[in-house]
Specification:
This protein has helices at 7-18, 46-56, 71-84, 96-100, 117-126, 141-154, 168-178, 213-217, 243-259, 356-366, 374-393, 410-413; strands at 37-42, 61-67, 91-93, 107-110, 130-133, 158-160, 185-192, 267-274, 282-291, 294-299, 313-319, 322-326, 331-335, 338-340, 397-400, 405-406. The chain is α/β, with parallel strands linked by helices. Strand 12 (322-326) and strand 13 (331-335) form a beta hairpin.
Length: 429
């Protein structure tokens, strides 16, 4: 299928951008209903329901299966789907392996807790399915390596769920940075404010009948059920995720890797404090990364630079001739004593996205990798895993970019991978 927008489509998308709606799926009719991509949604919490709603409103997608280990969630998702497509025949599953067995499914979306992302994606590739996977890419760094290997061997399509990537602002920032108008960029500062919620206690009890707790845990260590650790709150426990830092890293680091992907990482130094209460992810974390010819810093508070205090999340590029600060949908340039939000003389050279989900469907049909492809996403995610290792060990770490291992540091290398619980080691690692 031709993924280029015609003039009418382009004007419509431009209007959506002006209204701040560019992250919603593009819904212009682009293919006959008989030419639709058949999709199954795995994981149907808040983000999973968003996946379902996005794709359900795209004419080129047909939702044929809904899967979650919590039957209440599959029932809720089906009710929501019927409001969009009253005649849907989507089948309900609680075991994603049954979904992957179906030959009539072209692609899956994955919005499970982080510790399940990699295995499901790898098994989906092996089953011949394309994958739209939610961020973060994987629970561990080695899982990302295994995912890329499986994807390249299968030739399947992968898109990381960094929906903000599709917006015009990141594309324009990339053009501005790559133009050279700011000079040599030697320092970049990233930040995200906010602390994890206080979880004062865990109420251990028998799992509810609607939840397959053993499968929810899957490859993670065996643990008794407590509702405070399950579903949304899983992200505040190290067994399953990495808190606010792991949740938001890729959303703002994305604009850096789009603009000028850092090369030759040498060292990582992270400092921070564990959250209060029962959660154990960072309450705050600061991380310094030394790349070849570039220093990159992450903080949990805005840095002391112009324009940062008003932004809860942001990126600040320090160039020899000027600076640029941005968040998801705004930017500000300081150059030659002027404050600008654009440099009109710099041409638009990067094709704009038709929408993040539409970009995935276009890739599935054309068999070309989308913007947030797996190779790109893995490189962009890797420093986050390394910072978490430094945070856990409470010391600086030296990195070998060629071997993708720490230098003479077996203790740190051990944190690049967590062995799967034997029952749920489904990929034979």
């Amino acid at each position: 299928m031709n993924s280029q927008l015609n003039r009418r489509d382009f004007l419509r998308y431009s209007a959506l951008t002006t209204l701040g709606l560019q992250f919603l799926p593009y819904t212009g009719l682009r293919a006959a209903p008989s030419d639709r991509v058949r999709i199954a949604h795995i994981g149907l919490g808040g983000m999973g329901l968003s996946h379902m709603n996005w794709f359900a409103n795209l004419p080129e997608a047909k939702i044929v299966a809904l899967c979650d280990v919590d039957t209440n969630r599959t029932s809720e998702a089906l009710r929501a789907l019927k409001k969009i497509h009253p005649d849907t025949k989507a089948e309900l599953f609680h075991d994603f392996r049954k979904v992957l067995e179906r030959s009539d499914i072209d692609a899956v979306t994955i919005a499970t807790p982080d510790h399940w992302h990699a295995q499901i994606a790898i098994l989906a590739f092996q089953a011949g399915k394309d994958v739209y996977g939610e961020k973060p890419l994987s629970y561990s760094l080695r899982e990302g390596q295994l995912m890329l290997k499986a994807q390249q061997e299968s030739g399947k399509i992968f898109q990381l769920g960094t929906q903000i990537h599709a917006g015009d602002n990141y594309h324009r920032v990339t053009e501005l940075i790559q133009s050279g108008e700011l000079g040599k960029i030697k320092t970049i500062r990233l930040w995200k404010t906010g602390e994890p919620p206080l979880i004062p206690s865990l109420t251990y009890q028998a799992p509810p009948a609607n939840l397959d707790w053993d499968m929810w845990l899957g490859p993670a260590p065996m643990a008794d059920y407590a509702p405070e650790k399950c579903h949304f709150n899983y992200r505040y426990f190290m067994e399953y995720s990495g808190g606010i830092f792991q949740d938001f890293w890729c959303h703002i680091a994305d604009v850096v890797w789009m603009s000028m992907p850092p090369q030759g990482l040498k060292s990582i130094t992270a400092n921070g404090e564990k959250s209060e209460g029962m959660g154990d992810t960072p309450k705050w974390i600061d991380a310094d990364f030394k790349f070849k010819n570039l220093d990159l810093h992450w903080t949990s508070v805005p840095p002391d630079v112009p324009g940062a205090a008003a932004r809860g999340i942001g990126a600040y590029f320090e160039g020899s001739k000027g600076t640029l600060i941005c968040d998801y949908d705004s930017r500000e340039i300081r150059i030659d004593g002027q404050v600008l939000n654009d440099i009109p003389e710099i041409p638009k050279t990067i094709p704009r996205s038709p929408g993040h989900q539409q970009n995935f469907l276009d890739a599935v049909k054309s068999r070309t990798q989308p913007e947030s492809n797996l190779q790109y996403a893995r490189a962009m995610t890797m420093p986050m895993h390394l910072a978490m290792a430094s945070f856990k060990l409470k010391r600086p770490l030296k990195w070998n970019s060629k071997t993708e291992s720490f230098k003479n540091d077996p203790e740190a290398d051990a944190l690049l991978w967590r062995p799967y619980r034997e029952k749920w080691n489904l990929i034979g690692t």
